[in-house]
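Re-run with default settings, no changes from the original entry. Doing this only to confirm the output is reproducible before filing.
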Amino acid sequence: MSDADATGATGREIWIEKYRPQTLDDIKGQADIVERLQSYIDQHDLPHLLFSGGAGIGKTTAATAIARQVYGDDWQGNFLELNASDQRGIDVVRDRIKNFARASFGGYDYRIIFLDEADSLTDAAQSALRRTMEQFSDNTRFILSCNYSSKIIDPIQSRCAVFRFSPLSDEAIAAQVDEIAAIEDIELTDDGREALVYAAGGDMRRAINSLQAAATTGEIVDEEAVYLITSTARPEEIEAMITDAINGDFAKSRATLDTLLTDTGMAGGDIIDQLHRSVWDLGIDERAAVRLLERIGEADYRITEGANEQVQLEALLASLALDDS
């Protein structure tokens, strides 16, 4: 099969790459950040940058879009992308980054080094990175990406313009999946769109991946297809489980939990996340909501530390049922 045929074949392309924005203006849901970044490019005055925020909200896309706009067709030769979570040690900073920063280049004032997941770097590697940023500040610009800026040492933060990317709005995600569905000639129902937005939780990458996966199951992408393919519980299932526990019906609540863990195949951490998102939709008074959040936080901590997921979630439901008795 030729490349052209492969490109047109169903499922041959990963949609998150096929529809990745090529310019800053194409990025949805981060208007204020895009405007500030564009002003740096327009003024030919790009500083070191630090992007922080969750997954799938545009950090890597913004970095590559900057390179494309600064260098045009030459962007790949002047843009080095490294993933710090794969290569955490000080040798990466000393070797690959320094070699790229030292390399000769023509026609441009600086080259760009993009270090993804920079919060995975050890403190020693970050200290080496700080010295490298100082040494090559005349001809190199660094763009660092991380989930938690608090894990980046202060000397690096002070050398960067910090941009905090927020989770994408429901409207931005809905607009993107509608656009892709129209291009791919997919029938996306209203409840299917709402399910994609809910399952994504502000993560555009997850929304697009879910849309592509759901589209392989049939010509229509509806609510049922989305929840099935993403192994996500319907919001009403989560709310019913908690409401039953609060009302003292532990057995019914536990049965719902067992269905989610066993039949739906959800992970305990995912259930915790959906519980947290549903707290203020339960219609309970503020004091009860605060107690629920406290117990969700405790269960989340224990699961993160390696405790049995089912035991911790059942203990959470039991504590809510006992409150009522």
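The beta strands are 49-52, 79-83, 111-116, 140-146, 161-164, 187-188, 220-221. Residues 1-11 have pLDDT under 50 and may be disordered.
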